[in-house]
């Protein structure tokens, strides 16, 4: 993933997170239980924070190892799909086993941030 891809992925995920947040607050409020709305909102929160993380990686592109930043971006994107995606699906369907996917997304998030730590530690120049 290059810096242009990170910018597009970060901005697209922020767009989706804002739309999903509004949809949850207005469109799903009368449809989902309070418990499922909290699950939905958790997905939105993590999608938004890691959408911003992708934009951060893009901003750091010229200062740190592009290999590590690229890997971190891929992991953040995978984390958004697995973590937030599984929570959205769980909230909408009520199928509890979907929650078993969520920790894999969380692991992707942790690995992505660890990659950024490594990039900072190994900073070039």
TrEMBL record:
Database matches in Pfam families: DUF423
Keyword terms of this UniProt record: Membrane, Transmembrane, Transmembrane helix
Protein's membrane topology: Multi-pass membrane protein
The organism's place on the tree of life at top rank: Bacteria
Main subcellular location: membrane
Listed GO CC annotations: plasma membrane
Location relative to the cell: Membrane
Entry annotated with the keyword Transmembrane: yes
Transmembrane segments: 37-61, 73-95, 101-121
Family under the similarity heading: Belongs to the UPF0382 family.
Protein name per its UniProtKB record: Uncharacterized membrane protein YgdD (TMEM256/DUF423 family)
Gene source species: Silvimonas terrae
């Amino acid at each position: 993933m290059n810096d242009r891809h990170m910018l597009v992925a970060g901005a697209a995920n922020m767009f989706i997170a804002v739309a999903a947040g509004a949809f949850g607050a207005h469109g799903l409020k009368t449809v989902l239980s309070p418990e499922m709305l909290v699950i939905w909102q958790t997905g939105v929160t993590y999608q938004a924070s890691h959408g911003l993380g992708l934009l951060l990686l893009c901003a750091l592109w010229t200062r740190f190892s592009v290999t590590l930043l690229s890997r971190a971006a891929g992991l953040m994107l995978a984390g958004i799909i697995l973590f937030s995606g599984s929570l959205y699906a769980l909230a909408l369907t009520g199928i509890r086993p979907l929650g078993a996917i969520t920790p894999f997304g969380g692991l992707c998030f942790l690995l992505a941030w660890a990659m950024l730590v490594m990039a900072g530690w190994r900073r070039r120049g």
